[in-house]
Amino acid sequence: MKNGSKWKVSLLLVLLVSLSLFMVGCGNSEKSVDGSESSSSNKAGDVIDTEEKFQEVYSDPNKFKGDSIEFNAQIFLEPETDGDGTYFQCYAYNNENLNTIVAFNEKSDLKDEDVVLIKGKVRGKIDAENAFGGDLSLLGIDADSVEKTDYATALAPAIKTIELNEEIDQHGYLMKVEKVEFAEEETRVYVSITNNTKDNISFYSFDSKATQGSKQLKEEDSYGKGYPEIDSEILPGVTEEGIVLFSKSDVDEPLKIYLEGSSDNYELDFDPFIFEVKE
């Protein structure tokens, strides 16, 4: 999630009264927030479990009231909790156009930016207001379960993984690329650095580069994704592990990765640590 987008959605305040109405009714027939009757049993048909199906539900939420649904999402804003349960807003499939309200009838430790797998039923359309008094119409979900997961597994699964396990040692500065994961919109490089010297060494992910043929890939900010990051300063005897993130790459083309390192011992010269990734 980009900083700009996060600031924009942080201005969105959904009325708690709209959220609390999620929990009203628990019989075979219950009223939705717009007062219409809705069956609590799932309609005939498959579970709604793809982004394409979710898009269809989002376009006409009341048409799918009571249908079973399962989807991955990332929470934005801190969830609200009261005696009835937990309420939060999220982007289904990390798509900012699929702003969704979820009610979960249990207290939880969920927080802003958590990635979750949600299973439940479609509540229908939720009418609310934003911070400026404007009307909002969002999809509401009654969750049976909310399970924490991680960004790579849920929202950016690997299409292809190449196990490299290659290491380069320069003056006791040991750089290792363990594997590379190619996802639809990003490339994850799993890096391990060990300081076998007597001095502090440094690593800055923004100095990293990658190429495929004549194309240079952009190093990406992993803000909001929860990926482990390598500390910029590494003390003697310490091993640091993390993910260096790049933009989308071609899964079928060789990838060349350039990682930079330095030492507090300025008498030492370091060449780029270059790793070639191919099958």
Blueprint of the fold:
Blueprint: H1 3-9, H2 16-20, E1 29-31, E2 37-39, H3 51-59, E3 68-82, E4 85-92, E5 99-104, E6 115-129, E7 135-148, H4 151-154, E8 158-170, E9 173-183, E10 186-195, E11 201-203, E12 209-212, E13 215-217, E14 233-234, E15 239-247, E16 255-259, E17 261-263, E18 273-277
Parallel strand pairs: 5-7
Antiparallel strand pairs: 1-2, 3-4, 3-6, 4-5, 6-7, 8-9, 9-10, 10-15, 11-14, 11-17, 12-13, 12-16, 16-18
Low-confidence stretches: 1-43
The number of E-state strands comes to 18
Largest sheet: 5 strands, mixed, barrel
Can you give the helix content as a percent range? Answer: under 10%
CATH class of the largest domain: Mainly Beta
What is the average of the pLDDT values?
Answer: 85
Overall tally of domains: 2
CATH topology of the largest domain: OB fold (Dihydrolipoamide Acetyltransferase, E2P)
Q: Biggest sheet, strands in spatial order?
A: 3-4-5-7-6
The N- to C-terminal Cα distance equals 32 Å
Alpha plus pi helix count: 4
Short description:
The chain is mainly β and 279 residues long. It has helices at 3-9, 16-20, 51-59, 151-154, and strands spanning 29-31, 37-39, 68-82, 85-92, 99-104, 115-129, 135-148, 158-170, 173-183, 186-195, 201-203, 209-212, 215-217, 233-234, 239-247, 255-259, 261-263, 273-277. The protein has two domains: 3-150, OB fold (Dihydrolipoamide Acetyltransferase, E2P) (Beta Barrel); 158-277, Immunoglobulin-like, CATH 2.60.40.4170.
